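Q: what sequence does this backbone want?
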């Protein structure tokens, strides 16, 4: 998947040594992992972007949750 490859390239570029993505939704999988240190580094970088700051400063937001249960 192109998106996952790009996410891992960016993690590597940002020197997030203990982070790996295997899917785009972040749900539980042994190949999806990160450390507290990598998350702190990513958060510091995120705060450099005005769009992230605007989202962070909101008191609330709306999100649509869709659950598809297959038998």
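A:
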């Amino acid at each position: 998947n192109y998106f996952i490859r790009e996410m891992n390239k960016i993690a590597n570029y940002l020197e997030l040594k203990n982070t790996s993505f295997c899917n785009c939704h972040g749900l539980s999988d042994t190949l999806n992992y990160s450390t507290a240190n990598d998350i702190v580094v990513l958060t510091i970088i995120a705060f450099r972007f005005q769009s992230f700051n605007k989202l962070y400063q909101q008191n609330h937001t709306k999100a649509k949750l869709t659950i598809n249960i297959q038998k």
